[in-house]
Design brief:
With about 650 residues, the chain is an alpha+beta fold. The chain is built from 22 helices and 23 strands. The strands form 7 sheets. Strands 2, 3, 4, 5, 10, 18 and 19 form a 7-stranded mixed sheet that branches. Strands 12-11-23-22-21 form a 5-stranded antiparallel sheet, sandwiched between helices. It has a 3-stranded antiparallel sheet with strand order 1-8-9.
Length: about 650
């Protein structure tokens, strides 16, 4: 053998030894080091976990009345392991019996979100006679079973639908979110309202069963199971009785408005549109929501087992007026004269006026070189009025003068030029209140920065510069709740609540406690103080005196609404608002505080109602509020009557 051959043989030998060494090393790893982990992997491959949903917790009102519960539903299920031809025959027969389409049943059977080892529910709430028919003809329905399952049940007539919300199957986006815990496709999850906000409390712990699966993916045996644990009950601050009264009053008042002539239209007999509205009742001592109504409304039971596509599409049409929108927290409106609360507090805080400051209201003010004439509704002349009288008769001129004075100060570079905007933000306008419901709107408190931002994309430099200037008319409109100002009903109620309780801004509270199924309290939910507003000395008394006059005094904007009301039994202070909207009827607004000065331990409420295209505040909103107050105190309920304000505000 030559030297070259010996070298080659040596190289081959080294390679062979290296290969055998690697092989023996791998065999040792598989036998010793990796045996445990590989055995676990193999075991995992032959074990499947099937979950059983846990009943959700109930939702209770402040007095323990059940608002949302679970009920047992008869469900028809199908074994998805049927042979293709047999499945086709079964689906055809089921479609006829259940009154469903073949495509719908097939879609449910092919739904990847349902475990392949459990029967697939294809119909819920199946009629008893249908169940009997399937049972008597079981030979024609191989793989078909009847099961009883827990499904969500909401009270009939759907009180507080927007507040309670509804549940639905978890989406892939929700499943991918880090905000949800131990969920899988097909699970139910809160989609809106309290059902969504208190999902972690309401959702129970699913039961789990471990199944041994063979190579053909067939179940061999059960390896053990744990039972589902029901979710916790959530007790709300909402009073079902007050909620029912608020919803009924809102619906009745709006219906009456649609049959009432709009006095502001002279050309023809035209009734108010009043397509939508909302009502909010707060406990001024704690910020608790006592009632929250939004109209039009919907039935959350329609979402059980998935809302039909046709119905959901119908909810999106303009004619439906968006019944899924919770206008109490998502509706944004110019508030009109109810915003005079903010302007008053700003003026008293900065020393612009005192409660005795008098203005000669001749019906209009002329800005002359500053441009524009601004008048009271109907150019009504109120003569000499102090602050209390200005609030009682809703003198726009009184507040126009304040808006102009602040604008002049800002142009001169003096302090407090933005006093109205600053007071509005201190009271919570222009930002969410923090109520634990998703989708709350911000509202808007306009100022010069807003106009600059609004016109930022204007391609015309000259027009952009002109339209970005904060004009005197902007500030004058703001002072009476008009212009670019937008508020939500919950913000409005919260601001008046701060006046009522003496300066505390609460985050609106929806729930008071969380309980186990046996009634044991597991978590208390305390009121949350968000901020405090320092009310100037005498400011609260002056404001409440003016608001009392609005409902009691001759000439008060809501005095006609409260004729015959027993003020000796229940004290009330209130403010009307009428907001102009381009191309539409006015927005009707009314806010009440009752009682304005409660005795120690006595409840104190704030009620805010806004009705889109409902006319003057005294015409639609105020009668609705009166009905709610009567319900709160158990007073004799008077019929809702469309009333004309003594002075149009």
């Amino acid at each position: 053998m030559t030297e070259t051959s010996r070298v080659r043989v040596s190289i081959v030998g080294v390679v062979v030894l290296a290969l055998f060494g690697a092989l023996f090393t791998r065999l040792w790893y598989l036998q010793a080091a990796g045996g445990t982990s590989l055995a676990a992997a193999a075991n995992e491959n032959r074990v499947r976990v099937v979950t059983e949903p846990a009943p959700r917790g109930r939702i209770l009102d402040a007095n323990g009345a059940v608002l949302v519960d679970n009920r047992v539903s008869d469900v028809v299920t199908v074994d998805r392991t049927l042979e293709p031809k047999e499945r086709e025959q079964v689906v055809d027969r089921l479609a006829l019996v259940l009154g469903m389409s073949v495509d719908d049943i097939d879609a449910r059977l092919d739904d990847a979100r349902v475990s392949p080892y459990t029967p697939v529910p294809v119909a819920v709430d199946v009629a008893p006679e249908t169940l009997v028919f399937i049972g008597e003809h079981n030979a024609d329905f191989p793989g078909v079973s009847v099961d009883r399952r827990s499904v969500r049940q909401y009270l009939s007539d759907t009180p507080a639908a927007h507040l309670l919300g509804y549940t639905g199957e978890i989406s892939e986006d929700e499943l991918a979110s880090q905000r949800v815990g131990d969920y899988e496709l097909g699970d139910q999850i809160g989609k809106a309202g309290v059902e969504q906000s208190y999902e972690r409390d309401l959702r129970g712990t699913p039961g789990k069963e471990r199944l041994e699966i063979d190579a053909q993916d067939e179940v061999v045996r059960s390896l053990g199971s744990t039972k589902p644990v029901p979710g916790h009950d959530v007790q709300l601050t909402v009073d079902l009785n007050v909620q029912t009264v608020a919803e009924a009053a809102l619906a009745e008042g709006m219906a009456l408005a649609r049959d009432t002539r709009n006095r502001a239209v002279d050309e023809k007999f035209e009734t108010f549109n009043a397509p939508a509205g909302s009502a909010v009742v707060l406990d001024a001592r704690t910020g608790s929501v006592v009632a929250m109504a939004s109209n039009p409304t919907y039935d959350p039971n329609q979402f059980v087992d998935g809302i039909p596509t046709a119905l959901f599409d119908a909810y999106q049409t303009p004619e439906s007026h968006d019944p899924l929108l919770n206008r109490a927290i998502q509706g944004q409106y110019a508030p009109g004269s109810v915003f005079k609360l903010v302007t008053t507090l700003a003026a008293l805080t900065t020393g612009q006026i005192n409660p005795g400051t008098v203005v000669n209201d001749q019906g209009c003010i002329d800005l002359e070189v500053e441009g524009g004439v601004f008048c009271n509704a109907g150019k009504a002349q109120n003569g000499y009025v102090d602050l209390r009288e200005a609030l009682t008769v809703s003198s726009d001129v009184y507040f126009y003068e304040l808006g102009r004075a602040y604008w002049q100060q800002s142009r001169r570079g003096e302090p407090n030029g933005d006093a109205i905007q600053e007071e509005a933000r201190a009271l919570g306008f222009g930002a969410p209140t923090g109520i634990p419901l998703s989708g709350e709107a911000d509202g808007r408190v306009p100022d010069e920065a807003f106009k600059v931002d609004f016109n930022a994309d204007n391609p015309d430099p000259k027009s952009k510069a002109e339209n970005s200037v904060w004009l005197p008319g902007d500030n004058i409109q703001l002072a009476v709740g008009q212009g670019d100002l937008l508020v939500t009903p919950i913000q409005l109620a919260s601001a008046y609540q701060t006046l009522a309780n003496g300066g505390t801004v609460f985050t609106p509270r929806l729930a008071s406690q969380v309980l186990d199924a046996d009634g044991t309290v597991t978590r208390e939910i305390a009121p949350i103080t968000k901020a405090t507003v320092a009310l100037p000395p005498g400011a609260r008394d002056a404001l409440l005196d003016g608001l009392r006059g609005a409902v009691r005094s001759d000439g008060g904007t809501a005095s006609s609404v409260f004729q015959g009301f027993d003020f000796d039994a229940v004290d009330v202070a209130g403010k009307t608002g009428t907001a102009e909207v381009n191309g539409k009827h006015d927005t009707s607004v009314f806010v009440a505080i009752t009682p304005p000065d409660p005795a120690p331990g006595q409840p104190q409420y704030v009620i805010a109602v806004m009705v889109e295209e409902g006319g003057f505040g005294a015409e639609t909103a105020a009668p609705i509020v009166r009905r709610v107050i009567e319900g709160l105190y158990g007073l004799p309920v008077a019929p809702i009557v469309m009333a004309a304000s003594t002075v149009e505000d």
